[in-house]
């Protein structure tokens, strides 16, 4: 029967088949039909209407398979309309069904997302929204009729697949709080800055063009040497406008070793707070969820499918819990659930991973905030509670401890929202000279990034830092607790800042200096880290430099 040779190479009717010019280069990398291609539109079709009756358009492609031209006549005879074709080759590039059959059924080999922009959406996306609104019932919002979409089809319109799952959480092995107070943690900080998952990715990143139209305000790398990663990138939406868009993300698959729920919750919180750190307001943030998962279906090849599916279920529950708590709608996403490989007779599965990206409206790009320290003498504040949460942390990996050694970071949405609203108020008043949200590596790595970015030192004490009772210096420095920030303000603004953050865990922990050193004193007032900026920069950049 009819099939695709990508799925069934031996099918009798290969309606979908590999492009003829691709067959000769099977097995090579990059063997795809890539880039911009012209499309001739058939008059009177939906595609012709969407593109304002243009005879020829241009879209961007990335594919190897096509509708086999031998079946085009048969498909057209059955009612399918090929409304966009290559000008000189028998390649079907856009297909649709007549509107008498379906209100909006159109597909393309191209990738409309590659040519869609916030203020200039691709016509196919506009057409989809318009068709949905025509079918929807009107709703009234502030006296104005807007669209209402019936979501029933999402839940009842497609057959559902029922699978078995079983969740058995691992029992965490609690670290003894306050244990192992060290005199010198500078070597550990240096080691962590050079860790493959924390070190600089600048060398490879700069080999790609990240600046296409010159609209960026905050680039991926910031600071006096433009070599420290930003919490979020920010761009103008148009050349003559100060309105902008912030882009941020959160990812940390290591937490899935303990609980995929807290993995998902943590990366959602990370994506949101990175945007907040740059100046984005709550209520103006949307999310994109990208699941990358091992095979979660129980089978002979996947004997642990019950657990892997339970991990997926728990991650989805966290996705619902956190996005609804934060009022962050998921406007897009992608799922890939067969990421396994067999090598030498051994099955290798990726860790359950959720990449959560955020996109946020910035009212005025001139007010955005970056992580790098700005001026010697500024006061440094730690915002948010540090907990005994070293489970699956970068510190545990650096010290050879197992993932289950300690508790995985959790998210407490009510407290987080109070913190984020206070951050919004402080940002709106222009009080924050810098802002950074610590993630992997905790406060220690976060403070190092801020210092290296600004080319300025800092003199700090952990004694006043907000924390659970009984935490030692290691937990304070390296726990990866969520919903925290490191901010700096001018001394004259200290009183106002503390008033804004009343009811939110916060404390002044130090001052920016011109010493060129990051100096941190522990809870016992002894110096536990004294590291030069250039030494830290060398550790941070050398691991992947030249790779």
Task: Describe what this molecule looks like in 3D.
It is a single chain. Helix 6 (186-193) packs parallel to helix 15. The strands form seven sheets. This protein has a seven-stranded mixed sheet with strand order 22-24-21-25-23-26-27, sandwiched between helices. The chain has a six-stranded mixed sheet with strand order 11-14-15-20-16-17. The chain is 26% helix and 25% strand. It contains 15 helices and 27 strands.
Q: Keywords for this structure?
A:
single chain, 547 residues, alpha+beta, 7-stranded mixed beta sheet, 6-stranded mixed beta sheet, 15 helices, 26% helix
Rounded Rg: 27 Å
Oligomeric state of the chains? single chain
In spatial order, strands of the major sheet run 22-24-21-25-23-26-27
Distance between the termini: 48 Å
What number is the mean pLDDT? 91
Total strands: 27
Overall body shape: globular
Short description:
With 547 residues, the protein is an alpha+beta fold. It has 15 helices and 27 strands. The strands form 7 sheets. Strands 22-24-21-25-23-26-27 form a 7-stranded mixed sheet, sandwiched between helices.
SSE diagram, text form:
Elements: E1 2-4, E2 13-18, H1 20-23, E3 33-41, H2 46-50, E4 56-63, E5 65-67, H3 72-77, E6 81-85, E7 92-96, E8 106-108, H4 123-135, E9 139-141, E10 144-146, H5 152-156, H6 186-193, H7 202-205, E11 216-218, E12 221-222, E13 228-229, E14 233-236, E15 244-250, H8 260-278, E16 285-292, H9 305-326, E17 330-336, E18 340-343, E19 346-349, E20 353-362, E21 379-383, H10 394-398, H11 413-428, E22 434-436, H12 442-454, E23 457-461, H13 473-478, E24 485-489, H14 494-500, E25 506-513, E26 517-521, E27 527-532, H15 533-542
Parallel strand pairs: 1-2, 16-17, 23-26
Antiparallel strand pairs: 2-5, 3-4, 3-6, 6-7, 7-8, 9-10, 11-14, 12-13, 14-15, 15-20, 16-20, 18-19, 21-24, 21-25, 22-24, 23-25, 26-27
Helix pairs in contact: 6-15, 8-9
